[in-house]
Amino acid sequence: MGKESAIPVENESGSPTMRTAETLLRILPMALCVAALVIMLKDSETTDYGSLSYSDLGAFRYLVHASGVCAGYSLLSAVVAAVPRPSTMSRAWAFFLLDQLLTYIILAAASISTEVVFLAYKGDVSITWSQTCGSYGGFCRKATASIAITFVVTLCYVGLSLISSYRLFSKYDAPIAYTNKGVEAAIFQSS
Amino acid sequence: MGKESAIPVENESGSPTMRTAETLLRILPMALCVAALVIMLKDSETTDYGSLSYSDLGAFRYLVHASGVCAGYSLLSAVVAAVPRPSTMSRAWAFFLLDQLLTYIILAAASISTEVVFLAYKGDVSITWSQTCGSYGGFCRKATASIAITFVVTLCYVGLSLISSYRLFSKYDAPIAYTNKGVEAAIFQSS
């Protein structure tokens, strides 16, 4: 039994096709994160009413930071995933936890920025928040583009966390199955 | 090989302790969702400046809907998890996908409501959004309480999606391991 559970751990990342696919799926959100980051960083507009920059809004500052962290992690994890080496349990756990965490961070960034752009377009009469996009149309359009890209990144990360949870948990046996396999092994040996 | 993979699927939800633990972990977010829902629904304040209700803000309306859906799903899934019956692959996939979806929905609801309360407390000078909580202090405190509960629900769902992904993917073998097992089975049979 010991040997049987050791073999899949060593060979798990062996398929070159699967490794290439995962590496590409990690490089794609990196490129998208950089794009979202650059668009948001360059997003400022000066009109007759004054000037507005992304840094005036907390949600957009958070989006920039989240995109930066996401781009960095995507690059690092792509490099790690590309190198053919034995996959260990701790590496699978690290990928799983970090992928999950990044998914939540980037989803939160996309959500709160969407809410701010929504409020900036529609305003809110009951709490007297003005329709900022009426004055800063170009600013709002650029912000919307950046947020749309961030949502695509979120989708990539949902897929990546699915893959990494498959990679991690397929190394474990099903909860009760372990006992059954022991019994079957005993039957095999006695026959 | 066919029998070996069939047995764990049938017995997987067999442990009564594990079943009770999962049922309780699904009832807890249900209770919390109902609490967050009720607090938010009763959240309205009338002052000298006018009156403000949760329904005036899109983010809070979304939080109410998300909490309602989450409470309903938590109840249903607790009932399904409590009944001792053979766990099938399709049931494991349904739990996995729905748990993931609910985690993302409830996280988004908590995030955007946090952003709105943050803006209501701090305001934003550059886009002339006023500090609404200066006038409606009680409203903001209740909203904050509801959001805090929603974040606890999010944590519960992060745990639940971890459990359901373990339950699903531990039924699969590791990617390459399948071939190795086939080889081992052949050796077993020939000996």
Automatic annotation (TrEMBL), chains A, B:
Give the record's membrane topology.
Multi-pass membrane protein
Q: Cellular component terms, GO, for this chain's entry? A: plasma membrane
TM segments?
Answer: 23-42, 62-83, 95-121, 145-163
Q: Has UniProt tagged this entry with the keyword Transmembrane helix?
A: yes
Q: Manganese: is it a keyword of this entry? A: no
Q: Which UniProt key words apply to this protein?
A: Cell membrane, Membrane, Transmembrane, Transmembrane helix
Q: How does it assemble?
A: Homodimer and heterodimers.
Family classification: Belongs to the Casparian strip membrane proteins (CASP) family.
Q: What is this protein called?
A: CASP-like protein
